[in-house]
Design goal:
Layout (H helix, E strand, L loop, with lengths): L1 E8 L4 H13 L2 E8 L6 H16 L1 H4 L2 E8 L1 H5 L26 H16 L1 E5 L15 H15 L5 E2 L7 H23 L11 E2 L2 E2 L5 H15 L2
Parallel strand pairs: 1-2, 1-4, 2-3, 4-5
Antiparallel strand pairs: 6-7
Helix pairs in contact: 1-7, 2-7, 5-6, 7-8
Length: 233
């Protein structure tokens, strides 16, 4: 294991793209991993490869650090999750009070598989875009949850398995600001054009902040963050 290396959970969305830039600024070796879990917005998986290719072309210093990408089939997660992210359901709130987009155990599963791949590859840290500032109330995005998973992986793999979450206490405006600081307008433009956040998988409607339906919670957060960031510049 090298402490100067990381495996980034890269979904193809805005948050994980910012995290990838953050990791490439801090680690000497970076690899990426994504998951296909029969998500309704599976178009994000197509965005992943496009974004990575353009990142390599546009940022040669980062390209020298950026290694292999892995896409794991976790369709079983979609099979056991009757949510608005894995079924054609209306987005709303469940009886629990959580949004219907909450996929139970998703981040726990993702981090466990990422930990196994990092172990096999000899990579040090895991990096994820979990956030408890601008989020939908998902309990597996909280810092306490991430710390617990990190401890479990450290014990279960018998090696330190830190999980870095650079966006944990940032709102969406600060996430746009972070991308700008990391890679300037070139990275911001790449995130706008070639990442996907919309829960409905809409790539037909183009807004200043990127593609999406403009109405779902993910689009709303991204749009409001963009407007706040632009207004404060």
């Amino acid at each position: 294991m090298t402490t100067t290396s990381a495996l980034v959970l890269f979904s193809g969305g805005q948050d994980s793209a910012a995290c990838l830039g953050w990791a490439l600024q801090r680690f000497d070796q970076v690899e990426t991993i994504g998951f296909a879990y029969r998500q309704r917005h599976s178009v994000e998986l197509q965005c992943r490869s496009v974004f990575l290719a353009k990142l390599r072309d546009g940022f040669p210093d980062w390209a020298a650090k950026l290694g292999d990408d892995y896409l794991l089939d976790l369709g079983v997660l979609g099979e056991v999750s009757e949510t608005a992210l894995t079924r054609e359901q209306e987005i709303g709130f469940a009886e629990s009070g959580l949004p219907s987009t909450f996929v139970p155990g998703r981040n726990l599963v993702f981090l466990t598989f990422a930990g196994a791949v990092a172990y096999r590859r000899g990579l040090g840290a895991l990096v994820g875009g979990m956030c408890e500032t601008d989020f939908s109330g998902y309990p597996d995005c909280r810092r306490d949850t991430i710390n617990a998973v990190s401890n479990a992986l450290t014990l279960g793999l018998d090696r330190p398995t830190p999980i870095e979450t650079p966006l944990m206490y940032l709102d969406k405006a600060q996430t746009w600001e972070l991308a700008d600081k990391l890679g300037g307008s070139k990275l911001v433009d790449l995130i706008v054009e070639d990442t996907h956040t919309c829960y409905l998988g809409d790539r037909k409607h183009r807004h200043a902040w990127g593609y999406g339906c403009g109405a779902c919670p993910a689009c709303d957060l991204r749009a409001r963050g963009w407007e706040k960031w632009r207004a404060g510049r």
